[in-house]
Amino acid sequence: MGYLHSLPKISAITFLASQVICTPLAFAAGYQINEISPSLQGDATAGAAAANNDVSSMFVNPATLSTLIENQAYLGGSEIIPSISMSNARAIHTVNVPGIPPSSITAPVQGLNYQSNISQSAFVPDGYLSWRINNKLVAGLAILAPYGLKTNYYENSVLRFAADYSAVKSININPALAYLINEQWAVGLGFQAQYLKATFSNFNGPYTGISAIDALIAANNPTYLKGDGWGYGYTVGVLFKPDLCTRLGVGYRSQISEQLRGNGQQYTSPGGTVPAPSADFLFNAQTSVSAGIKTPAVLTLSAARDIDAWTVKASAQVNFWNSFNQLSINMPNAFANNSTLQTKWKNAWFGAVGADYRATSTWVVRGGIAYDQTPTTSYRDPRIPDADRVWLTIGASYMMNKHVSFDGAYAHIFMQNQTVNVTQASGSSATSTVPLEVNQVYANYKGSADIVALAIRYSF
To answer: Is the CB of residue 58 less than 8 Å from the CB of residue 140?
Structure first.
């Protein structure tokens, strides 16, 4: 009976803790999306913080707005087509029951141990607008999606107690100003308003691995959480031109803290949900949920050099993922329970080199290569089986007339093969320091992605 009374609290804690690694697989390291501009993507974003006459670089370095010759409106989008397979998966699910004496149920999870693709295609839009106020001051506005994408496992996957469905969508609204100090120096400052919407699910509750018993007591629906919220930050940047052909830029985007609030439904047994709390010893609860999440600060250093018809570019970027070292979760409506999950992510580097070639008065072609380091070196979760990756990119711009031009880019991303081998432990009680629920999961992953991007620019 003590075991059954503890099940709602066990499932709530596990649900909250497991959902905090709430980041689906994206195609920059961690859950960041680098598909912010087809013109920048053509050379793997090399030189983005030192770009010239390109409004879409303002999100990386707002000071680059000072280089705009005319006002610009820019509208683009990228179609991300991933292929991420999972194989040789196995998992063990344990429920520890506080009491005197304590007890537990441990069972290997039965189900599919492979999946041909756990990630879905996604369209990522971006839009920019600039307006020159005078010969010194330029204003800009960026609206884009810097974080997101999805992972989706089969509901009969052996990993279903650790991860089922994860989706994150973002909108970042970034107004900025650039000021030209003199012919060599410019500075920029911007404000970020960022909206995140997230949906996550996984299975919870008792599981024995014996079909006849599990048919009576195991949940037949996954627990899930939906939440959204706003957070705010800033961008700053500096652009330096030591001579007419060279540009050096530094851009910084601040960390953004957001509190996601929404509704959850936890399933621990067959049947429907009831409002929480309930007098029943085992029930499926409806409850409010909140979770704190931080998106990382990003520092970018870039250089660009014009050499005849060529522009050679390079960038180095550090993503401060150590801000994602833990997440706090709260479900006060159901059990007034708090849980904290240690994620142990590390800061990660991104480096790129590329070049533009002005082939004719109307055509520019470009290409680049980049190395993208994962922050998950010490903790890798099945919701985001992240790995180091290499980008190869090509792109082109076509000037149709003095007002309208088009950008196109293609990228292929090679992901290093990776293994998830992690024990997820969550929750504690007043009578025991032993985690209330434990998932031991193992799986191999391999993958790649193709990205096609198009944009139109209007100069006026």
So the answer is: yes
Q: Where are the alpha helices (DSSP H) in 127-274?
A: 211-217
Distant-in-sequence contacts of 279-286, Cβ < 8 A, 24+ apart: 281/1, 281/4, 281/5, 281/7, 282/4, 282/7, 282/8, 282/217, 283/8, 284/219, 284/221, 285/8, 285/12, 285/334
> pTM (2 decimals)?
0.85
Instruction: Return the minimum-mean-pLDDT range out of 65-74, 146-155, 425-434.
Output: 425-434
Query: Quick one: pLDDT at residue 430?
Result: 45
| Residue with the two structure tokens 């010969």 | 135
Q: How many CB atoms lie within 10 A of CB 90?
A: 14
Region at 55 (left for phi over 0; alpha for psi -120 to 50; beta for the rest): alpha
Q: In angstroms, how far apart are the furthest CA atoms of the chain?
A: 82
Beta bridge partners of 390: 371, 414
**What is the rounded CA–CA span in Å between residue 341 and residue 327?**
5
Separation CA 144–CA 34 (nearest Å): 11
Q: Do strands 404-426 and 363-372 pair parallel, antiparallel, or not at all (unpaired)?
A: unpaired
